[in-house]
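Bench log, entry 3. Co-assembly request; chain sequences pasted below exactly as received.
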Amino acid sequence: MKVSWNWLSTLVDLSAVGTPEKLAEILTGLGLEVEAVNRQGAGFEQVVSARVVKKEKHPGADRLNLCQVDSGDGKPLQIVCGAHNFKEGDVVCLAQVGAKLPNGMQIKAGKIRDVLSNGMLCSEEELALAAKSEGILVLPAGTPLGKPVAEILGRDDTTLELKLTPNRGDCLSLLGVAREVAAFTGAALKAPLPKGLPAAGASPISTALEAGEFAPQFLGCFIRGVRVGPSPDWVRKRLEAMGARSISNVVDATNLVLYELGQPVHAYDAKRLEGKQLRVRMSRAGEELPLLDGTTVKLTGEELVIADEKKPVSLAGVMGGGNSEVTEATVDVFLECAEFDPVKTRRAASRFVKHTDSSHRFERGVNPEGQRLALARLAGLVTELAGGAVVGVAEAVGPARGAGLKRAQVELEPAFIGRFLGLEIPDAEVERVLSRLGCAIEKSGAKWQVTPPAHRLDLSIREDFAEEVARFLGYDRIPSTIPALTNAPTSLLDSPAAQSFEALERVKDILASQGLRETVSYSFTSREWLAKFGLESSLTLINPLSSDQEAMTPSLVPGLVAAALENQRKHFGSEALELRLFEVRPSFQGPGAGTAVHSKSRTDTGVTETWRLAFALSGTRYQEGLQADRKPLDFYDLKAQWEQLVERLGARGVRLTAMGEGSRLPADPRYGMFHPGQSVAVLGGKEVIGAWGLLHPRIAKELKLRAPLWIGEVDWDALRKLARFAPREFKAWGEHPGMERDFALLVRDGIDADKITQVALAAGKPLAKVVRVFDIYRGSPVPEGMTSIAVRVIFLDDSRSLQEAEADEVSGKILARWKSELGIDLRG
Amino acid sequence: MIQQLEELGTQALKDVEELDSLQSLESLRVAVLGKKGSISEALKGLGSLSPEERPKVGAAANQWKQKLEAAIEARKRILEGAELDRRLKSERIDISLPSRRLSLGSLHPITLTTRRIVDVFRRMGFDPVTGPEVETDFLNFEAANVLKDHPARDMQDTFFLGPDVVLRTHTTPNQMRQMLSRKWPVRILAPGAVYRKDSDATHSPMFHQIEGLWVDRQVRMSDLKGVLDFFAKEIIGPEAKVRFRPSYFPFVEPGAEVDVWWKGRGWLEIMGAGMVHPRLFETAGYDPKEVSGFAFGMGVERIAMILHGIPDLRMMYQGDVRFLSQF
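Structure output for the full assembly:
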């Protein structure tokens, strides 16, 4: 909200405040944050009125004039001017040397075509009075000389822009801000405002309440014989300062009241109302109402409307009807001043997307005791600006208003405030602050009964009063203390929440130590993007910013691939893009694509969030070095990375198993994104908890990826449960040297190395401890369809040294089993 | 015979000094001192000498053998040294060629900043917790005293997944989740992603917050100030100052905006804070007459941007390696 300094000063004495900047500081300190202070006269300093004493042609330039101007001191200044729309004797606006105009122009003394010019004569454009102007601004004859132009033009106001929090509806008016200033400085509120409703008879149009608690009061005033026309300057200036535009004197009067008192009011053309009564009632479903902004809304039965005997004439609290609008032809007006329910107003405004100054105030609650004052003020303004005479007043006041209005008393122990804030405050100081705010205090011993003023709808519990006291003493007065621990910290050992936080930090460190860089992607993406990976979101935003961000992602991989593409897009040169990304974040599983979620209980959404760990790698094994060193990353690099991760997590029961052809895993659409021959599923116990491998070449081609991309993802919640974060136990190593035997085997295609080592370990029990494939070879002279595989077996016994014969004997057993189970022979 | 040894030895000594390869030196050693070497050959006639002469000749032969062995050994050392020098010279590499570098990993500035902040509060007794990012309307709003149809709802533009299910707009639901699940005292710190329907250079639809909550008997607003003072000094430096301004958040009363004085940057608004609204205690089943508490919530990205000098919020979520590799 904007606050005009000049207008505010009609409501409260600002002399104790001094300047608008100081006012801004005070208001911000009180919690009414001032975002900007705009002086209308900014840039007008050193721009004064001056008379053109002499005007002649510039000796060196035909299109320029050489002038002598007098700013009242009788010492004419020489000014070069390019405009021609003035004559000798005219009073003009002189920007003196040193002035800085609103458009940023700095005025300096200088030579123009060899002739000295000691300032500038200003145009409206240069003074930011008009977007475009021709020639200079000529002031009325008789304007005193040497006077600041800002003053002459009435640009002497300053507006403060307030960013109000929703609890302070009472400050959505100059009166509300004035109250705060008065409470702070101790100055009294000025009262240029009428005391009561104009003394008059009954209004020809009466008002009625037909919406119960949703509209507890509806006052009106009938004025006959107005002349609708433009508003005088002072009205225009006030509205301009508040950021509003002048419409007509009657409409402007309603806006003046809204800004001044915070009570929205409305003026109807009385002749266009049918019948003798206006009522506030609930709308009827299907009713149509044309509004002032030219649109027509179809009512639902849920809105409050003001209606005459035939039709709705206003969307109550939101916007007046076009069917009863005040126009230049209007002679009699009926003024409405009512109180509408905040929720009903809010819903109506949001249903029809009509957020207005009026709905903004009703939503936040208007002063239930402010209607009579506002109506009186409005009637006074209308008759002052548009003439006419008050014929009568209508008053419909419900049982909970008027004399029936009761604000609840709040029990307050004054010592509570100091105790709560951590600050010693004498009771008298508490009393002083609350009284200045308009609270009524009844004391009975250490307990007070406090009644807040009617306009402070936000004060209802003792903590509210603590805030009021703190605001007015200044939050700076609150000291710094350190609270004491009164119990032990939560044990990491029995808090799953703390454990999962620890584990998350641990795995991020491990991944970073493996050379991966952490990235963060949005949790939502487009359905189309997910579809490229064969994925579908089961959780959709109802109101996304755009369809690019509507699907909550079931996997982190699409986000990482998007980041890879983005990096590729920005990458240039002939070197491979080096990319090693990881992310650990939740993924989301809901009821199904495009299906709204219905929560299961107050605390259970029914949505499953599974934390996932994902990675994407591309590039070479080494990131720098010579060409020969920079071999592209391959499956076995990824495998090492994975194995080391599992090892460092101490995760038990995590295995890799082949996917695709020959795999015993059921087909899973989540793994369609992988190259079937160069990817693995990750088993945690018997469950598949993830997979990694090469991005399917079909997808890579479609996405125009320039290099192979290795991707992977695992259910972090599941992996975390298999991990061990307890201290590792030391294991002693054997002191006796082992024995090695190497075998060159001829192996049929389709038999994986894993199989060979498993058979060897089983056959070689208990001495064969390690079986390792250390070389493979295909091609001549190895027959087609076969691979030569070199296997090393290490025999160990922790308690003794082995004899050659023992190793030979076990080797024989292993060879026999290779032959019998896998049909493998030694390469001859 | 002694004469013959003399000639042989003198010639061999001369040859040793002239040889310039280990190989030829070895050949010479074999040729002179070997079993079939020239000295052995020369001594073949020893048997025909008189018993008086034999020891003399034998002694002379041994002397020459030792002399020659020593000379050969000395020469060998010289030649070996020279050869090592040659080899070392030939093995010189260009140390200025590029290194074979393995990728160094890194953590995201959001993680780094979260850790810094969490560490500070942990030392004061706060325990980190996490909560879901999809929340019920109840926990995100109602339980935080942001009532339905109240203008306070406009303070945060919300993404909806259903009529009463939202992407959490703040980490505040963690307050209630924790209070509902345990008895007081409560001292928790809840970092996590939050969502608001807002996107421009300074707003991201997803960002991160850290929520703090301290509930106990007789917790005072001055305690909030003390805790945040300590936080500011730990994160920013000993010159940091904290300023509270009255403000409004429905879940606290009194409420405050918290500004910190950052050297060279002035006052920066970095979080909202206040004393827990008694309505939250009622919802949690705590007796507001018995307990009080404070809560605060800060934006991680904002602090990360200041700490690292990051110019544009959007860089945080683009996964650009040029960005990620700097932290």
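Chain A has a mean pLDDT of 91. The CA atoms of residues 508 and 584 of chain A lie 8 Å apart.
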